[in-house]
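Figure 2 data, in text form.
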Amino acid sequence: MAAYLPLSLAILVSLLAAAAASDHGDYSHPNSGGEKKLVVQVEGMVYAQSCAHRNSWCLDGATPLPGAKVTVTCRDRKNRVMAWRSVKADGNGYYLADLGDGPPAAAYYKGDPTKACFVRLLSSPDRKCDDLTNINYGIQGAPIRDEGKGSPADGYALYAAGPLAFRPRHCAPRRHY
């Protein structure tokens, strides 16, 4: 079986290289219609959920989680990953992912970055609060929304995701027997 590994790895690498080369033709330059490239940024907050609301979507009493990492993923019109960024929250739990100078809006899945991009929790720097929660779909992929900051027609758009949270691993029992 070990003899097949280098051959299968070489085939996989060549297939990925060919796919990447063919994909760049779709987006690297504005099309003949003159569509502008779209600079996409996604912002949001990451919190540490309080023990009082563990196993719920409630963020009452939650505190910002500095240094938490999230990933922002966007899909192309064929539903393939076309952009991906991992970012770290600042000291206030705020993150801003800049996906850079991307393709025109029409190249995104269903022609709309709000349908093509999502945010997922990646890691927490706090070992006491590093269990993932699915608050606002932080595990499945939190949808982004248009906040009216910038416009695809202007070639720039800032989107936002709902607040995401990690929860404590261990909490004191709520009932005493």
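Caption note: The chain has one domain: 36-167.
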